[in-house]
Amino acid sequence: MSAFQRFNTLRTRLILAQGALIAGVIVIALTGVVALQRVRSTIERELNVSARIADATAQTVAMLFEQMRAAEQYFSENTAEVHDRFQQAGDSAHLLEKTLLGLPGLGADDRLTVNQISSLHEQAESWYAYAHAQFDLRRFVNAGDAALTARDRATELMGTLRGFSTRRARTAETTASRLVASSRRQEVTTWIVFVITILAGGGIVIAVHRSIDQPLSRLTNLARQYSRGDLRPVSLGRMPLELSQVRDAMTEIGQRLRVLVAEVRAQSDRIVGTAADLSAMSEELAASGSVISKAMIEISEGAREQVEALTAGEAATGELRTAAETNATVARHVAEVTGRIHRLAARHGDNISVAGRTLLDLGQVVHTSAGQVDKLDELFTSIDDFVDLIRQVSSQTNLLALNASIEAARAGAGGEGFAVVASEVRELADSSGNAAEGAAHSVAAVRAQVQDVSETMADGRQQVVGVESIAQEAGSALEEIVSVAGQIEETAVRVADTAKSNLQAADQIHRVLDTVATEARAHAESAEHVSASTQEQGASTEQIAAQASELTQSAETLLALVQGLKI
Amino acid sequence: MFATASLSRWIVPALTALSVGCGSGDPILIGLAGPFSQARGASMRLAAQLAVDEINRTGGIDGRDLTLVVGDDSASADAAVRLAQQFQADSRIVAVIGHLTSGTTLAAAPIYNGSDDPLLEISPSASNPAVSDAGPYTFRVCPSDLRHGDALATWARSRLRAQTAAILYQDDEYGRGVRGTFASSFTSQGGTVISEDPFVLGLPGFEPFLQRIRADGGADLLLVAGTEAAAERMLPTLDSVGLRTTVMGGDGLAGIQSSGVEADGVLISTAYLADRPGDRNAVFVAAYRAAYDNQVPDHRGAGAYDIVQLLAQALRAVGPDRQRLRDYVAGIGTSTPPFEGVTGRIAFDGNGDVPDKEVVIGQVVGRTLVTARNR
Q1: Eight-class DSSP state of B357
Q2: Among A535, B99, B196, B301, which is most exposed with the fewest C-beta within 10 angstroms?
């Protein structure tokens, strides 16, 4: 900080201005005092000079009068005493004249006059002395002539003295007017100093005012500019220290505000961009959420349907179980029937047709049974892999039924009874299960019986010519029946096993279905959860979108706020 | 007479320059003021010119000629004041030699001392005591009348054994001064002053005074306190009246020896006599005689000669400046050594007086003034 800056303060300026004004006042006072002193000393000096001159003049005049009186007196009284008075008065007058001549303040004209007075005095004195000498020598005429001359000189002397006094009086007037002029000069000087001081003081006040006011108004303008939002930097110029500190602070504020506004603008732009992105994303999210939601609803519905299906599956497996149990029962019945067939075939060859019909019936039953299995198979088809075994059984059962039916058909009228038997077999098969083993034994017995039957039937065929072919056929049919019965027996056993397995499988399926249903329910719940979550997410996304728009609005508000600010 | 003064003021320097001018540059001007139209002023002017010529012949002052500006005051106070005003106003004039008489010196002193640019004034012969107090710029190289009156009274009492003295004094500063100092000294030494009568040159004559002195019984001596001109008229009257007495006078009477009147035996007090011993004086007197038709210089001439030489010394020392010249001159005898002149040793006191200067008594013998011999 330079010396100029250190002293370029309001304080310094005010102190300087006040100092200058005080100095001006002091100068005025001193000038006035000096002027008064000068006037006073001039008056004193002039008065002193005038007084001394007047005093010396008066004494001179008195002495001259004294001498002249003594001189005249001598003519009537020529004593030593009068002579001494004449002489002493004359000597005194000469001394006074010399004193007068030596006084300061006497002009050249005055000196010449005093010299003239001295000269006239000397002449009058000498002529009187001359007249006195003549008088002492008693030459009165000569004395009178000399005295006349002496009186002439004395008269001239007195006239000159009067003139001198008059001139001194005039000199006094001149002196007075000179004093007046001097006083006036001093007065004028004082006034000039006063006016100069006033002007200088005014100038100083104006200068100080300007030096404070102008920087202040520049600062005020800057503040106004800032308040208008115009933050552009302005050069403020030099100013007093205090104001320059304010100026620096305001400049700093402006600088910081400019940076801030620029930053706000940049950030707002970014926020707007981000909010737009967010908005787009939230829209996408909302879209995908609705998709998910829809998908979940579908999943949920699917799961529900699955559950329903599974429930149906359970019912179906229940039915299957029932069917399997029925199968087992049927199989047992089949075995029993087959045994009875064996027995019947053996005992009732004649009743082969009946048996045929029975078998036909059986075929029908089987057929019916096959239809049921088909129906079961349909049921199992709906539950894919879980019913394969059932289907196989069904298929085998169907195949068996078909075979039975075919056989029943082949059996013709006798087949009708067989069909009934077959139906009963079916019923038996349906109602049998655990008797499969027994059935197997029965089947073996049946098989033996069938063989008996077959042998019987072969006996019958021979006995029954008419019905040889039929018998034969019946025999073969019986044989076929025996084998078929055997097969049926095996099949029934197998059916029984299978039915057991089916039962287990059905249980397993039930359990699996149960698990699946549980999972499906869980899925459904999860899907519902997901759906709910998705819905919630959707709400959130909407919220996000709303907030993004709010954000955008805020950013826009911010931008609008700083938009007016010029930087 | 003012016309004469003005004329001489302009003519004399011109003549001087023509006759002497050997220096270069502007001449240095010195005023010379005295009653040169009267006999008593002659020697002063001639001696001053002699000194100037001698100086200019030897190269002047640092190559510049000295030139005298001669002004005639006719021994009149009025003329002296006017002349002083002219000298004062001419800034080329660095000093004034003069005035010759006490009255003119005192009248002009306020002019020389009182202005803004004071002018040095050195008188060769203004012996009035008042000159001591005339101002710091007023000097003289002669003793004051106090010394003259004292010297005369002492001589009268101790040499003449005079008991009574009659005084005729010229009614001016000089005459009154000599009268006062003589009367005082003579009385104090036991003498009696029987009469003191003033005169002016305008009076018809001195016969009534002298007749009354004779009628009153005469006196052992008659002191003529006045000028040579007055004495010139008085001495014949003395004879006609028949008053037998010794005539004495101050240096105002110098010149009476060559006036033509019978003046043998007149005793004159003076600071200088041409027969004063000393080589310096002898050379001066010889030069004066050679230059001016075998005339003999008086105390005024010798004083003027010394003043020119003294001013030349001062000019060489401090240059042509009024104030510095005055200060140099005031210091002669104190700050600088005394000046050895033809009139003796010059050393100024605080009043511009030369207290060392002795007054000698001369006597008119034939037509010369010689050192008085004991009778």
Answers
A1: P
A2: A535
Nearest to B218 by CA among B265, B165, B180, B266: B165
Q: B126 and B153: one domain?
A: no
Averaged pLDDT for residues A21-46: 83
- B183 and B93 assigned to the same domain: no
Domain count of the fold of chain B: 2
Q: Do A489 and A428 contact (CB within 8 A), yes or no?
A: no
> Do B250 and B333 share a domain, yes or no?
no
* β-sheet bridge partners, residue B71: B33
What are A216's two structure tokens? 């202040």
Distance CA A498, CA A504 (A): 9
How many contiguous H segments (helices) and E segments (strands) does chain A have? 11, 0
Residue B266 and residue B288 in one domain: no
Min distance B189 CA to chain A CA atoms (Å)? 22
Chain A residues lying within 8 Å of B212, measured CB to CB? 133, 136-137
Does any CB of chain B come closer than 8 Å to the CB of residue A133? yes
Separation between Cα atoms, residue A433 and residue A327, nearest integer Å: 7
Q: Are A237 and A268 in contact (CB under 8 A)?
A: no
Structure tokens at B97: 């030699």
- Enumerate the residues of chain A whose CB falls inside 8 A of the CB of residue B106: 98, 101
Q: Are residues B118 and B163 in the same domain?
A: no
**Eight-class DSSP state of B260:** S
| pLDDT tens column, B231-275 | 999 999 999 999 999 999 998 898 888 888 888 999 999 889 988
Q: Which residues from A are below 8 Å from B211, CB to CB?
A: 133, 137
| In the predicted structure, residue B317 carries a pLDDT above the cut 80 | yes
* Pairing relationship of beta strands B339-341 and B344-346 according to DSSP bridges: antiparallel
Q: How many CA atoms lie within 13 A of A377 on its CB side?
A: 15
- Outline where DSSP puts E strands in B163-260: 164-170, 192-199, 221-225, 246-249
Domain span at residue B85 reads 15-143+276-357
Residue B311 sits in a domain of what CATH number?
A: 3.40.50.2300
The DSSP code for B26 is S
Q: Is B242 helix (H, G, I), strand (E, B) or coil?
A: coil
Long-range contacts of B10-19 (CB under 8 A, 24+ apart): B12/B68, B12/B69, B12/B70, B13/B67, B13/B68, B13/B69, B13/B70, B16/B49, B16/B52, B16/B67, B16/B68, B17/B65, B17/B67
Phi, psi of B31 (to 5 degrees): -75, 145
Q: In this predicted structure, what is the pLDDT of residue A516?
A: 64
Residues B189 and B302 in one domain: no
Residues B13/B28, Cβ–Cβ less than 8 Å: no
The β-bridge relationship of strands B120-123 and B93-97 is parallel
Distance between CA atoms of residues B296 and B284, nearest Å: 10
Torsion angle defined by CA atoms of residues A109, B40, B259 and A134, in that order, rounded to the nearest 10 degrees: 30
Distance from CA of A122 to the nearest CA of B (A): 6
The alpha-carbon radius of gyration of chain B (Å, integer) is 20
Same structural domain, B235 and B296: no
Whether B6 is covered by a domain: the verdict is: no
pTM above 0.80, yes or no: no
| Whether residue B221 sits in one domain with residue B193 | yes
